[in-house]
Amino acid sequence: MILDGKCPTGPIEKSWDNHCFNMKLVNPANKRKFKVIMVGTGLAGGAGAATLGELGYNVEAYCYQDSSRRAHSIAAQGGINAAKNYHNDGDSVFRLFYDTIKGGDFRAREADVWRLAQVSNNIIDQCVAQGVPFAREYSGLLANRSFGGAQVSRTFYARGQTGQQLLLGAYQALARQVKAGTVKLKPRTEMLDLVVVDGVAKGITYRDLTTGEIKSSWADAVVLATGGYVNVFYLSTNAMGCSVTAAWKATKKGAFMANPCYTQIHPTCIPQSGEHQSKLTLMSESLRNDGRCWVPKRKEDCEKAPGDIPEDDRDYYLERKYPSFGNLAPRDIASRAAKEVCDEGRGVGPGKRGVYLDYQSAIERVGEDTIRERYGNLFDMYEKITDENAYKQPMRIYPAPHYSMGGLWVDYNCMTNVPGLFAIGEANFSVHGANRLGASALMQGLADGYFAIPNTISNYLAGVKPGEVTDEHPEFAKSREDVQARIDKILNVKGKRSVSSFHRELGKIMWENVGMARSKESLTKALEAIPALREEFWQNVNVTGDSSGRNGQLEDAGRIADFLEFAEVMTTDALHREESCGGHFRTEHQTEDGEAMRDDENFTYVAAWEYKGEGKAPELHKEPLKFENVKLAVRSYK
Amino acid sequence: MQMLQNSVGRKLVMAVTGLFLFLFVVVHLLGNSSVFMGADGINSYAEHLHALGPVVWIFRLVLLGLFALHIFFGIQLTLENRAAREIEYNEKKNLRTSFGARTMIYTGLIILAFLLYHLLHFTMHVTNPEISVGALAPDALGRADVFTMMVLSFQKFFISLVYVGAMVTLLLHLSHGVQSLFQTLGWLGANSLPVMEKVGRAAAVVIFAGFISIPVSILLGLINV
Amino acid sequence: MNLTLYVWRQNGPEDKGKLEQYEAKNVSPDSSFLEMLDEVNEELIEKGTDPIEFDNDCREGICGTCGCVVNGQPHGPQEQTTACQLHMRQFSDGDTLTLEPWRASAFPIIKDLAVDRSAMDNIIESGGYTSAYTGEVGEANQTLISKPDADYAMDAAECIGCGACVAACPNGSAMLFTSAKVAQLATLPQGKIEAAERVNGMTEAMLNAGFGNCSNHYECEASCPKGVSVKFIAKLNREYLKALPK
User: How far apart are the C-alpha atoms of A134 and B40, rounded to whole Å?
Assistant: First the structure.
């Protein structure tokens, strides 16, 4: 099937405005009759639920965390982009649009990216109005900084906690709606099924994580804002509870999973220290503004203390390979470069999987106090984790899975191929193409939540009779039975291996074979290993306790079971995409000097996968990508 | 009236009444210090106070009101604070707070008990009527001989002990109370808070030293009839 | 390193609960406190015992989900550090650790070390926001905010809502949490307009949720993993005074 993204036609500059005008509206008096379910309360979900509540819809917002203030958007450190051009450095909506398309290696939809760039300015206005304490200049004006992958200063930030402050802004807007009675919060719940009636999404089934009860809730529209899936690698920068579960349940009910092989490996994470490790910690990419990446030129020097390696024996590999972007090269490029030098045996630290990020010259240039002001909290965090003082010796960093550009396939209206089911934020695939630029995830979450979904959902709801299907419908009872049956199945295995041991093993398979560099050989190997591990899981997993009341093991087991199915689709996608683009690097497809080689002739499309059941190959649907405003070009940062 | 149901509102009542009670204590100490000027000093001070007539009663009623508010809300807030942690920790380390801060309710109640005794003793002459001004001859100028009453009282070791003990509790109460009231009134910032903590403790010590200097001086025979 | 743990086990809110003894063996000093608990749990699962339930999510010290009282201190002995960022090198071989949940009547225990902190959400819902509708709210740079004001607001906004302040406070008061939001928004021009309603609403909600009253012990500041200062409590008190005539 050829998919249609339903993008507006006409000049791109007017596309969103025209689309807004052309969409159908819901009468204000009727809005409260419509019930909307929002799953996830991160930047996209929190902002979306708050705004839908403001508009007068009857909203229920679900999250697995104990409060809607805790979603993992909170951990974003560096900042949020906007095309304000406050610094008169040549920025514009078009440039942000262009940079995002190019940064995504020409695998994103133009119209979606334009909308993102256009509303980026409104986001900053909105957040300031909410009392988000962005950094300021002495003049009282908003401060900006530059960020990886961009040559203009367009990133707004709140110390090293921009995600936290933006999320709290959305959370507070949501709290206001809770008080107003338009939004009902359902914390500590996990969506475990999408209820589809006659091909239309009509509600969800969820588990109350405190009491263990399985309940259903109907709605006229369901919005998934459930984040990304890079916890499939086990060790990632995601929170422990992040999973593909909600999106995967939707996939099993017919929604397509688009470009799942596009995963972002973030270059500046703290290297793994041992087997005990449960997650990897990201250090903001803003560190690369002043830090210089290097490794020893000679393998023999790797064991030496960094201070003992003279300047001439150091290889500042990013500055050498990409002189114009240097240490600010985009994430995919910086990550791969780090992997290459480590593969050459020139890595540093335990296991020789690490590179230095050195502040010495920055400290000499601007002084330790300035560096402390800019990155103090990051340096402190680094010291807590590694017991090393980065003011005195270079940090060690290594790439780690961080973000998923792929996700549920959606059209321009953020609606999946299942009518009534929407996906926003990281959960959808639409704007980042094959690689996401720094400071644009926050932008996308808020763009989708504050500005896209409130407009596009009315276009859908205007054609729906409110409350037509409620949880009296037999599909809901069936959904609850299915969910309970799967839980019972997990509990009844009563095997020998712990849930986390399966997650660790899956992570290893994925990281080694479907990680930063993929080949036909490694992907085929993964496609053999994943089903085998899945089989073992259903034979040998050991989940203690029962399904009544809180049971963290049971929650995790359900999530791992879904990862074990999803991983296969992800690998299949990576195997089918015979090109290298952005975060997807196929070793067979590279230039002589090791740069990614795209195949625009054959792969300028979105790969949307339809799940066909366990053990069956997923079916590929394509949405061709057209580039009318940006010329397809080799992405060079040299 | 909403203020008297609000958490911060009632704390403000505690702070304002506390501030005035503190000022009263300071004035009381200054007045009492006239004992160091001998019989003439304190007897004329007492004479002046009594000459104020109805003003004394207004002053006493205001003081009673301050005490009543301070005690009522002190007890009410403490009961609420207890209810806010029904189950105690098996192990709890405190990093910043002081013994004085954690015992405010006890020191407060002990001071109340002392106050009642103090009134029965020196104002109403119930506890030791034999050495009260009513039983003693007036001084040379025909004034009530407060000086002799004080000296004879504090020469009794047990009475001095009660007074010194009470002043220890006042010391503890003020060592937290003074800085706390300034914080509650919102007058402190990041820099002034640690200074005020020291000032508050110093003030408490000065007041403690000032008050106990009287019974101690009498016991040591430095002041004599 | 090897450690002895005494962990509060309580199977649901109605259960009485008690401290149970466990051994943590071969703990790497580089592992985090929660990773140490993960390993203890793995062993418990192997033995068929229910693992220790504790809330956690980001494990980067920012989401505010984790936290228990370790040897009498919320989030453990290291200053300005959440339990997930606490590393085992802070302890020594042979140490005994007592792990208890946040104890406050406003935080009912769900299971073991996990407590229900929705009372803190109630406080925010009672005014911890600006009433800005999504839409045309004016150009961001139209209202200037001085750098000191912006920094002051950011200092307050650092709060992660973990509840350590309540757990540490001898009165179980949520004053530091409440004051941080009041101070942040009252300092910024966007939040000044509703400052009076906010401080009244939030302090009222604090009491109704069953939190105690602040009596300036400053234990909250000492155990706050983000170093939120009690100067914001003074600021709240000022805001309350300002709101009195209204």
Answer: 69
Is the sign of the CA dihedral A284, A290, A291, A297 positive or negative?
positive
Contacts with C, B 111-170, CB within 8 Å: none
Pair of tokens at residue A63: 């999250």
Distance between CA atoms of residues B197 and C207, nearest Å = 27
For A569-597, what is the mean pLDDT?
95
How far apart, in Å, are the Cα atoms of C16 and each of C8, C13, C74, C110?
Answer: 10, 8, 22, 12
Residue A220, both tokens? 């006229």
Neighbours of chain B (3+ CB pairs under 8 A): C
* DSSP letter string, A335-359: HHHHHHHHHTT---SGGG--EEEE-
Average pLDDT score over residue span A436-463: 97
pLDDT level of residue B129 (50, 70, 90 thresholds):
very high
Average pLDDT over residues A83-97: 96
Q: Which fold has domain A265-402?
A: Flavocytochrome C3; Chain A, domain 1 (3.90.700)
DSSP H or E segment with residue C176: helix C175-187
Could you read off the pLDDT of A378-411 as tens digits, one per residue? Answer: 898 899 999 999 999 999 999 999 999 999 999 9
Complex ipTM over 0.90: yes
- Mean pLDDT for B145-170 is 96
* Domain boundaries, given as residue ranges, for chain B: 2-87+97-219
Residue carrying structure tokens 């009076």: C196
Half-sphere exposure of B220 (CA within 13 A, CB side): 7
Backbone dihedral angles phi then psi of residue A83, each to the nearest 5 degrees = -90, 50
Whether the CB of A136 is below 8 Å from some CB of chain C: the reply is yes
Select which of A331, A480, A518, A635 is catalytic. A331
Q: Which residues of C14-53 are buried (b: 16+ CB within 10 A; e: fewer)?
A: eeebeeeebebeebbebbbbbbbbbbbbeebbeeeebbbb
Torsion angle of C-alpha atoms A630, A608, A566, A508, degrees rounded to 10: -40
Per-chain mean pLDDT for chain A: 95
B215 phi and psi angles, rounded to 5 deg = -60, -35
pLDDT number for residue A634: 84
- Contact by Cβ (8 Å): A145, A79: yes
CB of C179 closer than 8 Å to CB of C144: no
> Residue A170 belongs to what H/E stretch?
helix A162-180
Contact yes or no for A228/A170 (Cβ under 8 A): no
A146 within 8 A of A329, measured Cβ to Cβ: no
- Asked whether the predicted pLDDT for residue B58 surpasses 70, the reply is yes
Give me the helices (H) in A462-551, please: 474-493, 499-513, 520-540
Confidence bin at A139 (pLDDT 50/70/90): very high
Tokens representing residue C237 in the block: 């008190």
Q: Which CATH class is domain B2-87+97-219?
A: mainly alpha
Which tokens is A472 given? 């009296």
Task: Specify the 3-state DSSP secondary structure of A344.
Answer: coil
Single-letter amino acid code for the residue at A437: L
Residue A268 corresponds to which amino acid? T
Catalytic residue at A353?
no
Chain C residues 17-76 with a CB less than 8 Å from chain B: 19, 69, 71-73
Q: Say yes or no to pLDDT of B1 above 80.
A: no
Q: Give B59-110 pLDDT, tens digit per residue.
A: 999 999 999 999 999 999 999 999 999 999 999 999 999 999 999 999 999 9
CATH of domain A474-624: 1.20.58.100
Residues in chain B within 8 Å Cβ distance of C230: 183, 193
Out of A75, A137, A159, whose CB is closest to C154? A159
Interface of C with B in 103-142 (CB under 8 A): 103-106
Indicate the domain borders of chain A.
265-402, 474-624
The structural domains of chain C, ordered by start, are: 3-111 (3.10.20.30), 118-243 (1.10.1060.10)
